[in-house]
Amino acid sequence: MFRGFILFPNDKVKGLVGSKVQIEMKGEKSTLEGILEIADEYLNLHLMNTTEIVDGKKVRALGSVLVRGNNIILVNPVNE
Amino acid sequence: MFRGFILFPNDKVKGLVGSKVQIEMKGEKSTLEGILEIADEYLNLHLMNTTEIVDGKKVRALGSVLVRGNNIILVNPVNE
Amino acid sequence: MFRGFILFPNDKVKGLVGSKVQIEMKGEKSTLEGILEIADEYLNLHLMNTTEIVDGKKVRALGSVLVRGNNIILVNPVNE
Amino acid sequence: MFRGFILFPNDKVKGLVGSKVQIEMKGEKSTLEGILEIADEYLNLHLMNTTEIVDGKKVRALGSVLVRGNNIILVNPVNE
Amino acid sequence: MFRGFILFPNDKVKGLVGSKVQIEMKGEKSTLEGILEIADEYLNLHLMNTTEIVDGKKVRALGSVLVRGNNIILVNPVNE
Amino acid sequence: MFRGFILFPNDKVKGLVGSKVQIEMKGEKSTLEGILEIADEYLNLHLMNTTEIVDGKKVRALGSVLVRGNNIILVNPVNE
Questions:
Q1: I need a surface site. Which of A14, A48, C25, C55 has the fewest CB within 10 A?
Q2: Mutating which of F45, F68, F75 best tests the A interface, going by the most A Cβ atoms within 10 A?
């Protein structure tokens, strides 16, 4: 239907696999930070070594986390 | 349309069936904890022995619960 | 596209038709309780004899109610 | 894909066309009341003679209103 | 799949193109008012000469604005 | 299914690629401002040189940001 129109995650999110990313979720005050293990075309993500960050401080270690793409506000690569 | 691109739940969520998981839902302060009985490709879940957790304390036993995938913020496996 | 992968409502929600269920909705403090008359694959529901429950008390009789599936947080069967 | 499984609005919502309904919307304190003119399969609605109701009182006449189905919490027929 | 069932925007929203409309958005206190330039089948809208209205007063001129359909609560034609 | 009906982002959002835009997100008090690098048909966006704006002041530099389309309230081109 949109031939020639590249869907978003294929070219941008895939390039972030293996990198550290910060995720802001809808209606959540905290940010998730983790290594992006895999993503699908709906921006559903699997993060490893995930930590929950509030006001710039790590408040909780979550480890392996599945994140539902439709509730993601934004994905921000962390430059290290 | 995305041949070669594996959808999220097939390889990650399926591996959690039979395990204890914690679920954070959109706009809810409480967390659900239960045994993942089944999941579909939209992250719709059926949990057994579900309890509602607020501030780390079990406040309510819900038993069998169907959870709507699009309102899930994240799924976190519980290591026991 | 997901042959062999059974969608959620077909095997779980259908088994609840005719039973009393409690429904928690996104962004609502109240819970709906009613007899599940029918459900479709998106978890859209038709409830009969529906009552609205706040803090465990029935506050309003709604009768026949159509509920939009994407705004459901969870469905909890009521054991009587 | 779901042959034999009747989608929700076709048999329930269509039966309400021409009747007065109350609509509760996500994140809104007010309720909409109007005559259901037409509905589509996503529960998108066209209401006529719509009024906005807060705490049981009509506070605003809106007339013709298009309502986005995914933001509807529930549809409640008004018995007159 | 729904032959004979006309989708919502085709017959209703299209009739509003070129007219002034008010848009209520999910989780927003303000209302958008503008000339409807174009709409697609998901109620995604392009408004021209858009102003933001709070408590009946124009507080901001936004000009050309793209509005995401799934976050629209309702569309209300403005009779002038 | 909607032949002859042009989907929203193809003709409007594509025209904004390379320009500075402001994005209002659902449930967020801040606005994002950045250069639109790419958009897909769901209004998923990739912004470059992104800054977060609160009450008209730039409060944070985010750089490269992926934004989930379904959580966008509106896109507003910035005239410079």
A1: C55
A2: F68
Give the C-alpha separation, C31 to C27, whole Å.
Answer: 11
Q: What is the ipTM of this complex?
A: 0.86
pLDDT (tens place) for every residue of chain C, 80 residues total: 233 344 555 678 888 999 999 999 998 889 999 999 998 888 999 999 999 999 889 999 999 999 999 999 999 999 86
Which parts of chain D fold into alpha helices (H)?
8-11
Residue among C2, C43, C79 minimizing CB distance to B68:
C43
Pairing of strands B72-77, D72-77: unpaired
Domains of chain B: 20-77 (2.30.30.100)
Distance in Å, alpha carbon of A23 to nearest chain F alpha carbon = 10
Write the DSSP assignment of chain C as a string of letters: --TT---HHHHTTGGGTTSEEEEEETT-SSEEEEEEEEE-TT--EEEEEEEEEETTEEEEEEEEEEE-GGGEEEEEEPP-
3-class state of residue F58 by DSSP: strand
d(CA A27, CA B69): 16
Tokens at residue D71, please? 């933001």
Tell me how far apart the terminal alpha carbons of chain F are, to the nearest angstrom. 39
CA B79, CA B33: separation in Å to the nearest integer?
12
Q: Could you tell me how many residues make up chain E?
A: 80
Residues of chain F contacting E69 with CB distance shorter than 8 Å: 8
Cβ D12–C41 below 8 Å, yes or no? no
> Model confidence over B64-80: pLDDT tens digits?
999 999 999 999 999 86
Phi, psi of D26 (to 5 degrees): -65, 125
Q: Interface of chain E against chain D, CB under 8 Å?
A: 2, 5-9, 11-13, 26-27, 43, 69-77, 79
The amino acid present at A72, given as its one-letter code, is I
Min CA distance, A60 vs chain F (Å)?
Answer: 23
The two tokens of residue E36 are 């409807």
> Are A64 and A48 contacting, i.e. CB atoms less than 8 angstroms apart?
yes
Residue of A nearest to F43 (CA): A8
User: What is the DSSP secondary structure assignment for residue E7, as one 8-state letter?
Assistant: -
| DSSP state string for D45-61 | EEEEEEEEEETTEEEEE
